[in-house]
Amino acid sequence: MRELQRLFQRLGRVPQSAATRGARAGARIALRAAKAKAPVDLGDLKRGIIMKAERRVRVGKKVYDIMMDPAKSDIFAKTSLAGKRSYYPASQEYGWMMQSGQYIPGYRYLRRAIDDNAQEIKNKTLSEAAKDIDRLLNRGR
Fold it and tell me: Which InterPro entries match (predicted)?
């Protein structure tokens, strides 16, 4: 991390492309892990997990979200006869209450995708950004 910070200081400021490539590489690890950890019945939940870039563009920073595909919200949102709306991916992530009052814990497939792979995501993000910066520094010589 210190080496990467030194490279950023040498370069002057972080180029958007280096930050974007690094963030995308790290987010891909979380995406693959989330899909692997998602519970499978029909496979819709697993297929509904996507990686989407944040709409706002900040200078030198790109953020990616691992989320459920909004286009498939009609598949995942259900309304009971009583009129209560439930969202299947959320119940699988966080758990739900039975009518008897018993709590059924969720799988935490999205949270664990990041928590269980935090070091791998960090390493991949830094290595991809460092490769890009090395290319830029070597091109300038």
Answer: HK97-gp10_tail
